Amino acid sequence: MPLPRPRTDSSTRIEAETMIRVMLADDEPMIRAGVRAILTTEPDIDIVAEASDGREAIDLAQRHTPDVALIDIRMPRLDGLAATLEIRRTVPAAAIIILTTFGEDEYISRAIESGANGFLLKSGGPHELIAGVRGVAEGAACLSPKIAQRVLSQLSDGRMSRTSVARSRVESLTPRELDVLKLLGAGASNAEIGRALFLVEGTVKTHVSTIFLRLGVKNRVQAAILAYEAGLIDDPGQTGDRA
């Protein structure tokens, strides 16, 4: 007996195109279960894969090409930071959120250098998790407010020595690119930047790509930190409270 054909009407196609495909990577089954329970309550989020270690995370990311990967730092076989580097290299379209605990400050700078798009505390609330996933899927950065404060503290310790360097780097940007960088650093997605500056989203994407190239940064988190160091924004962690 032939299997029934799947629906292919326009509403089904639109739904598929708007779903956020998420991969979870954490060696603790209870953590994965909790995150899954929160995210699967949302109609626009689909859990497509779950990994229990870093190497499995890389394999599943390459196989499923998720829109967002939630990755724990401490995992067996390969840690989350090394997995992030490889996923960033082989699945560049995937946005990566690092799941961390409050005491793992020493990993923050390494995770930023690895190309993570955001950082969320495992102890954070469901709203913060859902907003973070949606935010990075839309092209924004995401920092848990508590992590943002620690990033700011780390930056402030040596900010004077970095400010002149950061300002010299942003001098290469045009006035319009500076406008985009300021909004990007405040946590705005491409769509939000477009509405604020009366630009189509494709033009915003071009500006963002050019900004990354000229500043020598990998993603929006690094760009936001550079904007903070240059004095363009007050707080690169505003991204942590997106709706």
UniProtKB/TrEMBL annotation:
Sites of 4-aspartylphosphate modification: 72
Residues forming coiled coils: none
Alphabetical list of InterPro entries matching this protein: CheY-like_superfamily (IPR011006), NreC/VraR/RcsB-like_REC (IPR058245), Sig_transdc_resp-reg_C-effctor (IPR016032), Sig_transdc_resp-reg_receiver (IPR001789), Tscrpt_reg_LuxR_C (IPR000792), WalR-like (IPR039420)
Pfam family, one: GerE
Ranges that cross the membrane: none
Keyword entries, A-Z: DNA-binding, Phosphoprotein, Transcription, Transcription regulation
Organism: Paractinoplanes rishiriensis
GO function term, MF aspect, one: DNA binding
Domain of life of the organism encoding this protein: Bacteria
Annotated Response regulatory domain residues: 21-137
Occurrences of domain HTH luxR-type (ranges): 166-231
Protein name (Swiss-Prot/TrEMBL): DNA-binding response regulator
One GO term of the biological process aspect: regulation of DNA-templated transcription
